[in-house]
Specification:
The structure holds 4 protein chains of 4 kinds. By secondary structure, chain A is an alpha/beta fold. Chain A has 8 helices and 15 strands. By secondary structure, chain D is an alpha/beta fold. In chain D, helix 4 links the parallel strand 3 and strand 4. The chains are: A alpha/beta, B alpha/beta, C alpha/beta, D alpha/beta.
């Protein structure tokens, strides 16, 4: 835990509007030495403060290898996030973290990896994707299946473009039925259906994040396709305040999402009581 | 030996030795653990204070940092480092600190609590009296239990036998001019009228997250936080900001699973219904904390029973859940400690 | 306390008092400048929470300006509000806060002069009462913390 | 007297439940090992036999109508039986006026009551109506016979109100100086831990989302420092003005013994004096703050 639960100051270096309600912020610690030494693992999260408004939880979505900045993506849903949406470049925020566990990428080595993301849910998948692509030779086939509600809601377009250009990634993008326009060249369909259509081999590791309802149906599809629960990995979200398993609100059963998660395998999730 | 009437001079000596002293004091007919000035004489005849020791070490409203909103800078507010003594606290309250330590100091470390805790001497006055709500013996403690205390004062007639239990305690009694009593026969501890059987409780909780019983046992609960906030082991908190135009402050404040907004996020509420929130309370105390740190988060102080406005009785509820496993007490087994 | 400049918040009805205050300005009436005006659609819009919040955030006085009885743009907003304002004053008094810190005036769009007079009178009055230490003092957090917090309440 | 009322109560509740006229009867049952009483939810005629009626029946059960499980029963069109003293029935009247319950969805078992004991006062020996041990609200009670009921238990003619001024403790405060009142309240509110027992015990506090939970904007600072506590209690008092039926449950529920009920009882008295309105007496009456008179007090207006 950070000393006294007090954040460090970061500066908003760049703002990228991803979709009408989501923006990504590139953040740099004011303390340049700390920035250089700052490390996080893919899957970990942080707490961002807008001073006087409060703190909110975000996954860190930048490449873990980049030492010069960190990035978070923020959907405008509440008090803190709407304050973040009012910010301009140069604004100063508070940062606490990193917290939580991470995707075990070493364990996935030598296997096919299927990333399934929906909407802003691609944000937590970016660090593991970057890491896997950085060490591409250690993995077999890499699939990235990404869906958004509509063309307008497609986030992280730069990344999708880059991944699409690589010959060693099977990228499939989709929008929900009705969300397409004339320019849309990707799939039209719900993410779980698209996953089934792409039909990656069930001995792959599947890593998914998105809206809870999407995760639920991706899991159903994965089971139907023959994936084993230990190989289906997701990241959970609960209301958090401290980030360190102390404040007592993010537990699902005996597990604290901030400390024991946020990354859980389906096998672990199934052992938890249904309260998330 | 120290006579009961001499405890006020112990307060005075502790104050002049630079300690912040907290002792039971009476207000409007009720006894609270509160800051005692030089010259205060502690209440000793009460059963237990309304507030628990967490009111001091995990304060209900603790400033964390000040913000300057103009140039956006933070000034951290450190937890007070001055030594403090909790004087004449009860054995159950002292035991609650062992549970809080297990939860808040390892593996994650609540640095603020840690600092406060390190600088705190716990001087317990063993109980001469128990009321109908007390059930410490059922949780593995007792009216003369030493768990969590640095010094225990055992009633013997009009005096107390002074038993230092830790190095900290020994140093403290030296500073305030008390002498340790190696021998002496304390008064026999009071008999508790209430026993709460917890055999099989943990096993039942392990299997019964989904049970209709949760609705039954929580039916009277009106969803306030009285039992949570008076409980010496409930430790959940919230972090909240206050801001003016140019300056703001961040606080850590008590929070509790009884309130709907405890787990409510923008657009998602994972814990729906009062029964689910009451279940969290029982599960947290009697299962989750046992799973995580191998302790039951209850010391049987009975505050939740005494102060519930609608008569919710955790003892009855615990017995009504399962049939038949004993509570996991904190600290060394009684009598196993030297001193 | 010679340097005390009261901080007064005024909630003014869009249809009358706000226009009255405007008129006081355009006709260059001289009056005390310690009032911060918040325009509301009707004095009936002023929830007692607004008044309490203003005090809590550092106001030393609060004024509500509404239309004269019978003149409400919405027929009876001011009549309904009057009952609430009466009760707020009683409550403040019962809690030990001087109810004179909360003032109500009926002031029409043509009463620029009256508005200026009310502001001057209320400012004098609040100056005499001094700062509302109530909330400010209380901002110094409980327990061991004795730090000043007036910055949170003020500017 | 109490015993015959208790038998009648059990009988009536039993009848309602066996005829399935109501799904549950919210009443009083024995407390901890027979010591005192606490709310009881009787769902079967057998359970109705456990209902009790005595001078320890302080709780205002009307608060349960807006909470689980009664809320759910009422929402799906079911019917709830509720045991109500006069003051509790006044709360039911307000709930009716405010559209929180439908008249036909509650069966009110009205209890003729000659006062309940103050759980805060020494319980030994005192019986209702005879000493200072009754709650202040029971002094000169005007609603010993509830203003609203479907079944009445007890003899209206036999009830005798306790002597004394129900607002005596409030008047003591009024006679203090402003400064004394300030230090009285700050002394008490310094203890407020914001457990919201006062709010939860209050039958009038039925909002699905309380203003304390609203964060955009943050109307009331969340911390329980004095500033946050005072803002909470002031705003709550205004939310209850003209609605409070002076049942005193907020004060009784407070684990820190803050006499919050004095605030609401004082304002109820002021509302009655100025606007000639007493909450919860008549379901047809227009609530004080939903109407006005042209000649309402206005001497405070500039």
């Amino acid at each position: 835990m950070d000393e006294n639960l007090v954040p460090r100051i970061v500066r908003v270096e760049e703002i990228r509007e991803e979709t009408p309600d989501t923006r990504s912020l590139k953040l740099v610690f004011e303390d340049a030495d700390f920035q250089k030494s700052f490390e996080f693992r893919p899957g970990q999260f942080c707490l961002i403060s807008v001073f006087g408004m409060g703190e909110s939880t975000f996954c860190i979505s930048s490449p873990p290898g980049r030492k010069d900045f960190i990035e978070v993506s923020v959907k405008n849903v509440g008090k803190v996030t709407s304050a973040i949406h009012d910010l301009e470049v140069g604004a100063r925020l508070g940062f606490r973290g990193p917290y939580g566990n991470n995707f075990d990428l070493e364990k996935m080595e030598g296997r096919n990896v299927v990333f399934v993301g929906g909407g802003i849910g691609l944000a937590p998948l970016r660090p593991p994707i970057y890491e896997v692509l950085e060490r591409r030779d250690r993995y077999k086939d890499v699939y990235i299946i990404y869906g958004a509600r509509s063309v307008l809601d497609v986030a992280f377009k730069q990344d999708l473009d880059e991944w699409g250009k690589r010959g060693d990634v099977k990228l499939v993008t989709a929008v929900d039925p009705g969300g397409e326009d004339e320019s849309w060249k990707g799939e039209v369909g719900l993410v779980p259906h698209v996953l089934e259509k792409v039909n990656p081999p069930p001995d792959s590791v599947l890593v998914t994040c998105g809206p809870p309802i999407m995760i639920k149906y991706v899991i159903l599809s994965a089971r139907k396709m023959g994936f084993v629960p230990a190989d289906v990995i997701t990241t959970l979200e609960m209301k958090m305040k401290c980030g360190a398993g102390l404040c007592g609100r993010c537990n699902i059963g005996s597990k604290y999402v901030c400390r024991d998660g946020p990354v859980f395998s389906l096998e672990e999730v199934e052992s938890l009581p249904d309260e998330f | 030996m120290v006579s009961k009437s001499d405890l006020s001079s112990v307060i005075a000596r502790a104050v002049s030795a630079g300690y912040e002293v907290y002792a039971p004091g009476k207000r409007n007919g009720k006894v609270y653990l509160e800051k005692a000035d030089d010259g205060a004489s502690p209440e000793l005849d009460h059963v237990i204070t309304v507030n628990g020791v967490k009111d001091i070490l995990l304060p209900r409203c603790e400033p964390l940092a000040d913000f300057n909103l103009t140039d956006v800078s933070i000034e951290s507010i450190d937890a007070p480092a001055a030594g403090r003594v909790l004087l004449a606290t009860r054995p159950c309250d002292a035991a609650s600190l062992v549970i809080l330590d297990a939860i808040l100091l390892d593996p994650a470390r609540d640095t603020r609590y840690a600092r406060m805790r390190e600088e705190t001497v716990v001087v317990t006055v063993a109980c001469s009296r128990a009321d109908a709500a007390c059930f410490c013996t059922s949780m593995g403690y007792g009216p003369h239990d030493e768990t969590g205390s640095d010094v225990i004062l055992l009633p013997a007639g009009d005096s107390y036998l002074v038993r230092p239990l830790t190095e900290k305690g020994k140093a403290f009694i030296g500073e305030v001019g008390l002498e340790a009593d190696a021998g002496g026969e304390p008064d026999s501890p009071p008999q508790l009228t209430r026993t709460v059987r917890t055999e099989g409780l943990k096993a039942w909780l392990d299997e019964n997250f989904e049970s209709e019983k949760w609705r039954d046992v929580s039916i009277n609960c009106i969803g306030c936080g009285a039992c949570y906030y008076l409980c010496p082991t409930c430790h959940c908190f919230d972090i909240t900001d206050e801001a003016g135009v140019a300056r703001g402050r961040r606080y850590r404040i008590w929070d509790c699973c009884s309130f709907a907004d405890f787990t409510k996020m923008a657009g998602h509420q994972p814990r729906v219904g009062r029964h689910a929130r009451y279940r969290q309370r029982i599960m947290h105390k009697f299962k989750y904390t046992v799973d995580n740190v191998n302790l039951t988060a209850c010391v049987g102080d009975g505050r939740c029973i005494r102060h519930c406005p609608v008569g919710v009785d955790i003892g009855e509820i615990l017995e009504s859940l399962p049939e038949g496993g004993a509570a996991r007490r904190g600290g060394p087994e009684p009598g196993s400690r030297e001193g | 306390m010679a340097s005390f400049r009261p901080r007064i918040v005024a909630f003014l009805c869009n249809w009358c008092s706000y226009a009255g205050a405007d008129l006081a300005g355009t006709t260059r009436k001289k009056y005390r400048a310690d009032v911060r005006v918040i325009r509301v659609p009707c004095s009936g819009r002023v929830d007692p929470s607004f008044i309490i919040k203003a005090f809590e955030r550092g106001a030393d006085g609060v004024i509500v300006g509404g239309c004269h009885p019978g003149d409400c743009h919405y027929v009876s907003g001011n009549y309904n509000a009057r009952r609430r304002f009466y009760t707020v004053r009683k409550l403040l008094d019962f809690m030990g806060i001087d109810s004179e810190r909360f003032q109500v005036t009926w002031c029409s769009a043509s009463e620029g002069e009256k508005w200026a007079g009310v502001v001057n009178d209320v400012t004098d009055l609040i100056e005499k009462l001094g700062p509302l230490e109530a909330f400010k003092e209380m901002g110094r957090a409980v327990l061991s913390d004795t730090r000043e917090i007036e910055g949170v309440a003020g500017e | 007297m109490q015993e015959s009322s208790q038998n009648r109560l059990r009988e009536e509740a039993g009848k309602l439940l066996s005829a399935a006229a109501v799904e549950v009867v919210v009443g009083y049952g024995d407390g901890h090992g027979g010591d005192g009483v606490r709310p009881l939810f009787a769902r079967t005629p057998d359970e109705a036999a456990g209902l009790v009626w005595n001078d320890a029946c302080v709780h205002n059960l009307a608060t349960y109508l807006s909470r689980e499980p009664c809320r759910q029963i009422l929402l799906r069109g079911g019917k709830v039986g509720i045991v109500a003293k006069g003051c509790d029935a006044r709360a039911l009247v307000v709930l009716l006026q405010e559209g929180q319950i439908a008249r036909e969805s509650v069966h009110v078992i009205g209890m003729v009551c000659d006062g309940v004991l103050d759980p805060g006062a020494a319980v030994s020996g005192g019986t209702a109506g005879s000493s200072g041990a009754v709650l202040p609200k029971c002094r000169q009670c005007e609603v010993q016979t509830p203003p609203l009921y479907d079944t009445l238990v007890g003899d209206p003619a036999g009830a005798a109100a306790a002597e004394g001024d129900p607002l005596e403790d409030v008047k003591d405060l009024q006679s203090m100086s402003l400064e004394e009142r300030w230090s009285f309240w700050t002394g008490h509110l310094a203890r407020c831990i914001k457990c919201y027992a006062c709010r939860q015990a209050c039958p009038m506090c039925y909002c699905a989302t309380c203003i304390t939970e609203k964060s955009e904007p943050q109307w009331i600072d969340k911390p329980s420092h004095l500033k946050g506590a005072l803002a909470y209690h002031l705003i709550r008092a205004m939310h209850l003005a003209g609605r409070c039926v002076s049942c005193g449950e907020c004060g009784r529920a407070c684990p820190m013994d803050i006499p919050v009920d004095k605030i609401s009882r004082y304002l109820a008295g002021q509302v009655e004096e100025a606007f000639d309105y007493k909450a919860g007496m008549d379901p047809e009456a227009t609530p004080a703050f939903r109407t006005y008179r042209e000649d309402d007090p206005e001497d405070f207006i500039r």
